[in-house]
Specification:
The chain has one domain. It has helices spanning about 40-60, 65-85, 150-180; strands spanning about 5-10, 15-20, 20-25, 30-35, 100, 125, 130-135, 140, 145. It has a three-stranded antiparallel β-sheet, with no helix packed on it. Strands 1-5 form a two-stranded antiparallel sheet. Strands 6-7 form a two-stranded antiparallel sheet. With about 180 residues, the protein is an alpha+beta fold. A hairpin with a 2-residue loop joins β2 and β3 (about 20-25). α2 runs antiparallel to α3. Helix content is about 40%, strand content about 20%.
């Protein structure tokens, strides 16, 4: 009989807090997280949804079908990308759920002094979220949490769709003003 070199603990599941973040853990993996600025996240989600509904019921009626599809696509991507970036795990580093019995003398581990986890190069302890984030970029109060390895791509999609949404709104206002002048 071969013995395992690791002691395995039950992997937690459910909603819990880690630092100042609220997370959904399933079998030890983080599937969703809300940062400490969760109220602002709810406000932005409501605003984005309002923009999408406003577009569908007010703006789209006054423009050609091609522009309706373009606007619906832009505002849908804006809403969905914000939902994903605000709920996706930014790369929170958690304590391992397994303890190795074999000790290695040559490997030095760098530990965070505040949250007591093993950190990697490029990770950073966020003072707002009170957790360490892999490949930390910044803490974004608009998103409501940190931007890191897990959600940076969706953050860029959100920024791009926001610029496109504002440009589309400006184009709609310009075209609408031209229609009323003629």
């Amino acid at each position: 009989m071969v013995q395992s070199s690791k002691i395995r603990f039950k992997r937690p599941s459910g909603f819990c807090t880690l630092g100042n973040c609220y997370i959904l853990v399933i079998n030890g993996d983080i599937y969703a997280s809300l940062g400490p600025d969760w109220l602002f996240t709810i406000i932005i989600i409501s605003f984005s949804l309002t923009m999408l509904i406003t577009f569908i019921y007010i703006m789209a009626k006054e423009i050609e079908l091609l522009f309706q599809y373009l606007g619906f696509f832009i505002y849908s991507i804006l809403f969905m990308s914000y939902m994903i970036v605000s709920l996706k795990n930014p790369g929170i580093i958690i304590s391992p759920w397994e303890i190795e019995l074999e000790e290695t003398e040559n490997q030095e581990k760098i530990m965070c002094k505040k949250c007591n986890v093993e950190v990697e190069i490029g990770s950073f302890h966020c003072e707002d979220c009170e957790v360490c984030i892999r490949k930390h970029d910044h803490h974004c109060p608009i998103i409501g949490k940190c931007i890191g390895e897990g959600n940076i791509r969706w953050f860029y999609v959100f920024l791009t769709s926001t610029v496109l949404g504002i440009s589309y709104l400006g184009l709609w206002i310009y075209l609408r003003s031209k229609m009323h002048i003629l």
